[in-house]
Amino acid sequence: MKYALYTGCTAKESTPELLKSTLLVAKTLGIEIEVLNEASCCGAGHLQDFDEFLSLVINARNICLAEKRGLKMVTLCNTCQLMLENTKRKLDVDEKLKEKVNQKLGELGYRYVGNTKIQHFLYAILEDIGYEEIAKHIKRPLNLKIAPFYGCHIIRPSKTHDGDNLNENPYKPNAIENLIKVLMGESIDYPTKLKCCGFHVDLQNTPVSEKLTSNILEDATNAGAEAIVTPCPLCHLNLDVKQRAIAKRENKDFNIPVLHLPEMLALAFGYSAEEIGLNHHVIDVKF
């Protein structure tokens, strides 16, 4: 099995531990990874508001890179996943728009076809590997109370994902909860696990962004979680990097580690903190 990995910007820059742990998990599960090093930024959920056509061309080009290899395109970031899937959905149902985009892509030597599946790493391994096979690789049961935090774009809007997230119920998802249990951890339920972390509103209204992040940290802590796990590096940035500043400003007592989803798997597979890159976290991860 082989994936074309679209890392997005964050996994190569702000959160290198995400890419590191993803490669470890893929190796353990027997998945060959080809990183799309020539890919560009997806626009991060903002470019389309300024120039929608440019956003379509950029993301169609990124998809072309996986198409040319004949591989499934796998993402590590909720927002990247949404931007790429949005582009595919629009081009696949509008021949005139697809041709217009292809005229621009032709200047660069590319042509979008639309025959590549785009899937977040979480749902790719669940679809291609499955819980039962994943469980066979456990060397260190988690034995932790873990609060799942999905983030918005991996489950909403549900019509965009069109089955690529295994038809996850956007109001009651269970993939991460099930994965925590398979890895022998305890999944903790709490009121804000499906809410927005505030990342995309940070530049426009920082206090609102930080309040949204604070609510999640407080609810997870009060529910007894020993860690939070998320499939989105942008959510991770808000929940981990901004945690101390928010706690100080609001006079709250947060000190909860935030794991990337592949890190949780890598820990259960027996990799060391050094191998995973846990030293890159702002909030110490010590279990």
What does the secondary structure layout of this molecule look like, with pairings?
Layout: E1 2-6, H1 16-28, E2 32-35, H2 47-50, H3 52-69, E3 72-75, H4 78-92, H5 95-106, E4 118-120, H6 121-128, H7 131-135, E5 145-148, H8 158-161, H9 175-182, E6 186-187, H10 206-222, E7 227-230, H11 233-241, H12 243-250, E8 258-260, H13 261-268, H14 273-276
Parallel strand pairs: 1-2, 1-3, 3-4, 5-6, 5-7, 7-8
Helix pairs in contact: 1-13, 3-4, 3-5, 10-12
Concise account of the structure shown:
This protein has 14 helices and 8 strands.
Question: Can you walk me through this structure?
Answer:
With 287 residues, this protein is of the alpha/beta class. It is 46% helix and 10% strand. The protein is built from 14 helices and 8 strands. It has helices spanning 16-28, 47-50, 52-69, 78-92, 95-106, 121-128, 131-135, 158-161, 175-182, 206-222, 233-241, 243-250, 261-268, 273-276, and strands at 2-6, 32-35, 72-75, 118-120, 145-148, 186-187, 227-230, 258-260. The strands form 2 sheets. The protein has a 4-stranded parallel β-sheet, sandwiched between helices. It is globular. The chain starts with a strand and ends in an 11-residue tail after the last helix. The mean pLDDT is 94.
